[in-house]
Design goal:
Layout: H1 17-32, E1 37-49, E2 52-63, E3 71-79, H2 83-96, E4 104-108, E5 112-116, E6 119-133, E7 138-157, E8 160-171, H3 174-180, H4 182-198, H5 201-204, H6 208-212, E9 216-224, E10 230-239, H7 242-254
Antiparallel strand pairs: 1-2, 2-3, 3-10, 4-6, 5-6, 6-7, 7-8, 9-10
């Protein structure tokens, strides 16, 4: 499945009919009336994120207040409720990867995940054991049960979406962490998971045709919206110029 990154309407490397329709509508309004207030798109998109294929409901909208003399702004809202279970499975897998045959054994609860204060907050209970394992003896040396806490927040860096590890803490695993460096290992694994997203240009960046004509992500934040739905709210902005939009449409049609 071709990856589709999070942008109003869900775009891929070659873009799709939805974006073409979006820009056509915007162009018509800019050229004809220079004023509009409408929901431009509202449908599900397919996306591959954190190694799983899922569908994300997406809307895109623009109003007259989204325009000034120089900038055109489009607001996108992606319902990420389907992403959170994927993150739950990925985080649990990261922890279980620490198992090392007999010498180090770790278990993990299903992570608790919620969106609060522009961040995805993750809380996991984990039990860890260190064993001496030889052909003559098998003995448990240390056993601890602790909590792993992390927070992931979106931001915009250089016009692209970026997932940031805003917080990471390990509690009550001090002996094992000091012996095996568990906190450092887990933090590194979390960063690698986020870097997979941040370094994937199809997920984190706008398509080249939009970048070349001056469009960028301007804001990205997480909210609990209607009926406690978890939503990634994004805004892209670019030149409020009919000729530029015509060039974009031409590129999309011939791509």
């Amino acid at each position: 499945m071709k990856k589709i990154f999070l942008l109003p309407r869900g775009l891929n490397g070659s873009l799709n009919i939805g974006l073409k329709a979006t820009i056509t509508v915007i162009l018509f309004n800019v050229c004809a009336t220079n004023a509009f207030a409408s929901e431009l798109l509202n449908r599900d998109i397919d996306i591959n994120v954190f190694k799983e294929d899922i569908a994300i409901p997406m809307t895109a909208s623009a109003t007259q207040s989204s325009m000034d003399d120089e900038k055109l702004r489009i607001k996108g809202e992606a319902n990420i409720s389907n992403v959170l279970p994927v993150m739950t499975r990925q985080v649990k897998a990261l922890i279980l990867e620490l198992n090392n045959d007999c010498k180090f054994q770790v278990t993990s609860s299903d992570p608790e995940i919620e969106v609060v204060d522009n961040a995805i907050h993750i809380r996991v209970t984990s039990s860890a054991e260190i064993w001496v394992c030889t052909s003559f003896v098998k003995k448990k040396l240390i056993q601890e049960t602790g909590t792993i806490i992390a927070a992931i927040s979106p931001e915009v860096q250089n016009g692209a979406l970026f997932l940031n590890l805003a917080n990471f803490e390990v509690h009550d695993l001090s002996k094992i962490s000091s012996t095996l460096g568990i906190e450092g290992q887990l933090k590194k694994k979390f960063r690698e998971l986020l870097n997979d997203f941040n370094h994937d240009r199809e997920l984190s960046q706008l398509p080249p045709v939009l970048q070349e004509h001056g469009f960028t992500y301007s804001t990205a934040l997480l909210e609990n919206t209607y009926r406690d739905r978890q939503t990634l709210v994004m805004e892209i902005e670019g030149p409020n110029d009919a000729l530029t939009l015509l060039k974009i449409i031409s590129a999309l049609i011939t791509d």
